[in-house]
Structure formats: structure tokens, C-alpha cells
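Friendly challenge for the regulars: who can give me the C-alpha cells for this chain first? No prize, just bragging rights.
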Amino acid sequence: MDMEKVQMRQQVLMGHLTGFSTNPIAAHNLLVAPSVCMGGDGETNHGRAAESCNDDDVVIVAAYRTPQCRAKRGGFKDARAEDLLDPVLKAVVESAGIRPDEVGDIVVGTVLAPGSRRAMECRMAAFYAGFPESVPIRTVNRQCSSGLQAVADVASAIKCGYYDIGIGAGLEFMSENSIGWGPIDNPRIQTNQQVQDCLLPMGITSENVAEQYGVSRESQDEAAVRSHKRAAAATAAGRFKDEIIPVHTQIVDAKTGQRKHVTISVDDGIRPNTSMSDLAKLKPAFKKGGSTTAGNSSQVTDGAGAVLLMKRRMAMQKGLPILGVFRSFAAVGCDPAVMGIGPAVAIPAAVKAAGLQIGDIDLFEINEAFASQYVYCCQKLELDPEKVNVNGGAIALGHPLGATGARCVGTLLHEMKRRGKDCRFGVISMCIGTGMGAAAVFECGTNARSI
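First reply, four minutes later:
Bragging rights claimed.
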């Protein structure tokens, strides 16, 4: 490591000690700076960030999600958007044993629904969940990272002292709100190639990544098979039970019109028997002669998730177990024509802002929008496949756009808790339409020293 890098790392670590970052990248992108303790010999641990000792840390004490169901065909096809958000909002406060009126704000990531309507649905969900009128709620839209952005926004507000307890959530109801829009009539579009690329169908950007970076059809299909196999194994082992809240809803029989009350408690898009031979039979979905198919792309999905955050001091006062610590966040732009490479630029930025290195990260949750971009990002960052999406990803579980970030927080932190002392730092990341990536670093609560 050259002297400039050493000095930068020292600056970041000293910023953690004081609670204020001196790293310009962190100052721009980092919403919550990790604090670092000094070791017994008075020296700072540069290999991995030292154990936390700051009672102003922003921590996660609960993270839940609904099952994720296939849009228009799955268990939520006849539900309502607010009926998905309601149970997860209720679950995070009930599990923590806090009163709903203690929550300072609720921020919900959501993408496809008209903004004013979705904002009303979220407010309705909060009332259904038992929150009083005094608790505000708003939505945020940074496309596929909206759920993670909601969590980051709440973490930032808590760190700034706007309130002590908040909920970052995500919601997408793709059975009702589909991807797509009408033509944009602006002659200026033709004068700027990057503007034109912002309007490319997401599937075409996937093909661009595959072509530009040499990601083969075989490697994409292998990633898809692995996603389904891991998700199926996680389901069979009960590893999602800690994060899923069953949802009571109804399903309408398409033939008879009869309504049947059901309880949905498992993800319904996982195909355990997915094989390379089956995927090889699928035709390209977006481009003749292409490599992106319905089988190696994320599923169109309904779902919601919620994450309860507060200051460590508050969690300690209430005697709440700490699931994780929010360490850093970064959103970084990239070429919109290959928007899927976003995690490859966002992850290094978030990890650097946390005063860490890629090798310090024990687990990764990277959204599988398309296998092409997922494979590329893992290869570019030289990630160990055994550390990435260990319980499957969006190809198997689905990608409810606004909810994915919130879902990943729960999936990551519950898995880190299961792994115990050998799993300390985790990263969540996803690509973002129009050319961006977002990433956040978390520390496992059981491995961060309490006050």
C-alpha cells in the first residue's frame, strides 16, 4: 500500500473516532460514519475496522419482508399494495416492543406507481398497521435502489438528530404497475447519446454488458441455476423464516370469480429443478442472437420489506438486540448504456468510505437484475462466489423494484447473525436504471461491541 493510500486510510479511521469523516468521498457519499475503538495497545486496527464503541451509531434492530410472489400469477396477484406494506410495518415495531408513536418518520422506496397515489397507499398502510396520525411517511424513488435508499435516508436523519427511531421500507406491486412508459417527445434527445441511452430498455443494457465485457450465455445460465438452487436450499432449511412475515390475503379464481382467503408465507418464484439444459432451450428475450433470456433475468415480482433503525444508545436503553450497524452508503453514476455495471463502481466507493477493503467483506447481497451484469460485477471485483448471494438472489427470489433494497437488508443481516463471529461485515448493492449503482456496508450486531 503506497503512502497516499495509507494516509487516506488513516484519515478515514480518525474521522470514525471523532464522529466526522475527513475523507472527501465519505463526506459526499457516506451517510453514517462507523466509529472505531482503540485496541488495548493504543494502536488502531488497520486490517479491519475495530469494534464499535459509539452510542451514536445507527443500528438495525428489526428487518422483515413479505414473501416475494410472481406478479400477475403469484400469491399476491389479487392483493392491494397497501396490504403488503401494512404487515411489515407492524412487524418491525411489534417485534422490537416499541410504541408506533415513537417512530419519527417512515420512508418507503417505491418505483413504478404514480407518485401521489403510492404516497397515499403508504399512508393508508401506516394507519392499517396502527401508527397514529402524528407519525409522518414519505416515498423515495431511486429506481432499483429505492429500498436501500430509504434505509440510508432514515439512517442519515437519525445520525443528524432529526429523530431517534425511524423505519426504512420498500414496496412494489408489479401485478398492478408494470414497467414501461409512453414515448418522450423531445427533439433534444437526438442531440445527446447518453440521454438516448437513458431510454434504452433494461434488457438491451443487459445485452450491452454481455457484449462489451464478454459475459457468455453459459456463464449467465450458470448464475441463474445457482441462484435457484441456493434459494431452494435456503427455503428447505428454513433460513428465510426469520425474515418473512406471512401475509393474509385473498386469491380470485380466474374461472369462477370466487375469492379464497389464503396466507402466503413462502416465496413462490423459486424453481428448484432449474437446469442448464432447460435454460439452454430459452430464446433471447430482448435481442435476436442475444444472450439475455427470461431464465437468466430477475423475475417481475410483488413484495414489501421494512427495517427499523435507531441510535445505539436508544437500543441499549430499551434492551433491544442489535441485528446490525449501518456503516456507509454510496451512490455512483456510470454509463447508462451499460447501467448494470453499477455495483462494480458503487461497492468500492462504499467499502472505502467505511475504512475497509473488499477483502474485509464477509458476505455480499448483489441484486441479480440480469445474470450478465451480476456475473460481470462479481468478476470485476474478484469476489469469492461462496460469499455472494449465498441464499440465492433476484433471479430466483424476484425483484420487486422498490422493495429489493429493504429485502436485502433483512436477508443479509439474518444470515450474518446465523454465521456468528466469523461474519462481521456485509455489503448490499444493486445497479440502477439510467446508469448508477448503490451500495451500503453493514456490520453484524453480534460482532460489534456494545457500550
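DSSP finds 14 helices and twelve strands in the chain. The chain has a mean pLDDT of 90. Your move, everyone else.
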